[in-house]
From TrEMBL:
<dbReference type="InterPro" id="IPR004165">
    <property type="entry name" value="CoA_trans_fam_I"/>
</dbReference>
<protein>
    <submittedName>
        <fullName>Glutaconate CoA-transferase subunit B</fullName>
        <ecNumber>2.8.3.12</ecNumber>
    </submittedName>
</protein>
<keyword id="KW-0808">Transferase</keyword>
<dbReference type="GO" id="GO:0018730">
    <property type="term" value="F:glutaconate CoA-transferase activity"/>
</dbReference>
<comment type="similarity">
    <text>Belongs to the 3-oxoacid CoA-transferase subunit B family.</text>
</comment>
<dbReference type="InterPro" id="IPR037171">
    <property type="entry name" value="NagB/RpiA_transferase-like"/>
</dbReference>
<dbReference type="Pfam" id="PF01144">
    <property type="entry name" value="CoA_trans"/>
</dbReference>
Amino acid sequence: MTAGTPEHTVEKNYGETITSSELLTIHSARALAGRRVVFAGHGLPTLATALAQRTVAPEIEIVYESGVTGARPPDLPRTISDSVLVPGAASVIPMTHLFNYVLQGQRIDVGFLGAAQVDRYGSLNSTLIGSDWEHPDSRLPGSGGAIEAMAGAAEIFLVMRRHTPRTFVETLDFVTSPSPHRAAQSEVGTMPAGAGVTHVITDLGIMTRFAQDEELTLSAVHPGVDPAEVVSQTGWDLQVAADLETTQAPTPEELTILRESLDPTRIYLR
């Protein structure tokens, strides 16, 4: 498995063709076991929460930035504002109410997000790549609800399609969503209510952190991945857990639900 390449398969490690997107989604869904209310971001977080709802967390309540709460869509939504989210939902409320009373009201157990860059303490960049604000190398979609999720959710899960030194960086090009560690160092603003980023799922493994001043630590690698490769693909001196685990292979049931029921046209799986 090589980081930084286009969508790849990992059949050499699992005995069948499994893409990195499938691997990421399944491990992201598994991480939601035992969680109740999840704020789902666009892309793989949406797919992962849908899979969790059909596997490890059937009672999960999915909340979307568009104002839909308790979503149980009959089909996979293509965006976080897709009308398919409305049938069967517990409620649809104005976005101002969602942000003011649900996110700021600390009613979210997990904010599930993606980002362009993350640093060792879990601060996120989803705004731009490059040092020049006026002429960046890439201008990205921006925060959306990510900064509110970081501020109000009990914890943040992050899914990253590529684990490279350009995505896991010593210094962010722009701080879109500051971690509790960074917020504590600032003289302005307020502290996030929760723990910040506690789980990061990548194409190489899983990183975790839980305390304000704790760095992300490599806690698990996928089968066939050398921990030294993960360290070399990280832009800081990544620490490896003493009890490093190897993740469990996707099950036939998980793959069938993902491929044939949730995303047969590969909206998010690519």
